[in-house]
Design goal:
The chain is of the alpha+beta class and about 90 residues long. A hairpin with a 4-residue loop joins strand 1 and strand 2. The protein has a two-stranded antiparallel sheet with strand order 1-2. The protein contains one helix and four strands. The chain starts with 7 loop residues before the first strand and ends in an 11-residue tail after the last helix.
Length: about 90
Amino acid sequence: MQIKPGSFCPLIQADCKGLECSWFTQVRGTNPNTGKEVDEWGCAVTWLPVLLIENSQQQRQTGAAVESFRNEAIKAAALLAAPRQTLTLPAD
């Protein structure tokens, strides 16, 4: 059994007006759940769950990149703060 979404709009309490509605939006990109390309028109309200999932994924990736950069900066600071060792070359 295939579940199909209805066309009732809770904003106007009537059937969806499609392209006549300002909230009817085209979304292009990659579905974060399936990885498939998306190029569809739909109500902005119905796109919210997908866009929220994508936003959360991007935030996690940004957090990981910032943490990685912080770790590298700490390593570099530790190297700069470490006392320098002097090497003496043997005399010929």
